[in-house]
Q: What sequence folds into this?
């Protein structure tokens, strides 16, 4: 009997292209560093067709979505006016990459068909870290600037991901009929020396009645509530916002688990192979 759960020990794999969409401050292959650490090679070893576009690290959602469109066309060899058939693709986006994917499918004249969008720790309802919400208080805002100081030059991207601006985004860009939407979330409890210790505690312990989804349990950047969109597949293990792309900070003094990133992506593609492509 075929497995009908997202958490299957044996996986099936889709026939169509998998497009991995990187998040804020990300790229792929720069200085030999892959954003989705080990994921592309692992999925390809299972027979998947995988492409990893590169978009602006700090651009707006609109800018990045336009670049994502152009990159997919280039990686799949899709040329204007070509008579080739439109390939089917599954988009898997981490963090802001999930927002880029949601925006992409509203663009006119795509040369490919998007069958599904799966988002991983994506701030669909915004992140308080992007806005330094007034509800955090003076001390909290000051402490958060330590983290934001690492994100210089990121104004457009961060501005787009505030809870207020994500409310406008969600109003303007509804789910597209015929495309399946899935999401997974993550959370963890970092130690004091972890990069996300301060941000994690603020998102977890504060609140704002205007944007309740943006607060609560979180992965250091995005709350569990904010990351839920479409069919919710579940909560991933004890790992951070960067742990779900293979860059967790492990060790007894850090707080990330030794998370099996490759297994998660195998489960994500299994999900679309079964539910969208109808494979068993």
A:
């Amino acid at each position: 009997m075929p497995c009908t759960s997202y958490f299957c020990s044996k996986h099936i794999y889709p026939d169509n292209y998998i497009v991995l969409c990187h998040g804020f401050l990300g790229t792929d292959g720069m200085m030999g560093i892959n954003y989705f650490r080990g994921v592309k090679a692992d999925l390809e070893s299972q027979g998947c067709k995988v492409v990893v576009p590169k978009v602006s690290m700090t651009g707006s959602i609109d800018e990045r979505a336009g670049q994502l469109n152009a990159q997919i066309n280039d990686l799949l060899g899709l040329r204007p006016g070509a008579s080739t058939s439109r390939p089917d693709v599954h988009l898997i986006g981490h963090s802001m990459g999930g927002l880029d994917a949601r925006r992409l499918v509203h663009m006119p004249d795509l040369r490919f068909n998007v069958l599904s969008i799966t988002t991983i720790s994506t701030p669909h309802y915004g992140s308080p870290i992007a806005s330094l919400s007034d509800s955090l208080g003076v001390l909290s805002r000051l402490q958060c600037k330590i983290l934001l100081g690492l994100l210089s030059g990121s104004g457009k991207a961060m501005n787009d991901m505030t809870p207020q601006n994500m409310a406008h985004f969600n109003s303007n860009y509804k789910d597209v009929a015929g495309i399946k939407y899935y999401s997974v979330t993550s959370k963890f409890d970092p130690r004091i020396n972890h990069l996300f210790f301060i941000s994690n505690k603020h998102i977890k312990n504060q609140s704002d009645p205007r944007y309740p989804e943006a607060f609560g349990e979180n992965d250091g950047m995005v709350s569990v509530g904010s990351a839920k969109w479409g069919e919710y597949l579940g909560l991933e293990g004890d790992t951070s916002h960067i742990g779900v792309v293979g860059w967790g900070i492990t060790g007894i003094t850090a707080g990330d688990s030794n998370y099996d990133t490759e297994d998660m992506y195998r489960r994500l593609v299994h999900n679309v192979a079964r539910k969208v492509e109808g494979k068993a």
Observations:
- Confidence is low (pLDDT under 50) at residues 133-140, 146-154.
- DSSP finds nine helices and six strands in the chain.
- Residues 136 and 206 are 6 Å apart (CA to CA).
